[in-house]
Amino acid sequence: MAGSFYSVRCGDCENEQIVFGRASTEVACAVCGTTLVRPTGGNAAIEHEIVETVESR
């Protein structure tokens, strides 16, 4: 299973969090609870700013 990890910045509270690019569940911001990533059945829909790619496989 190939995929990438991204550092995503929450647009509401500016918290940066590492998320998986093929997440199978919703990922919420650990600080404010805003949804950062939604699953789509393949690559996840990242709804906030991607700061950097942390690791690619």
Layout: helices, strands, pairs:
Blueprint: E1 4-9, E2 16-20, E3 27-28, E4 35-38, E5 45-46, E6 49-56
Antiparallel strand pairs: 1-2, 1-6, 3-4, 4-5
Spell the H/E element sequence. EEEEEE
Rounded radius of gyration (Å): 10 Å
**Strand order in space, largest sheet:** 2-1-6
Helix/strand structural class: mainly beta
Instruction: Tell me roughly what share of residues is in helical segments.
Output: under 10%
CATH superfamily, by name, is Ribosomal protein S27
Q: Write down the domain tally.
A: 1
Mass-distribution shape: globular
Please give the CATH architecture.
Single Sheet
**Tally of DSSP helical segments:** 0
Low-confidence stretches: none
Q: How would a crystallographer describe the biggest sheet?
A: 3 strands, antiparallel
Strand content: over 45%
- Give average pLDDT, whole number: 93
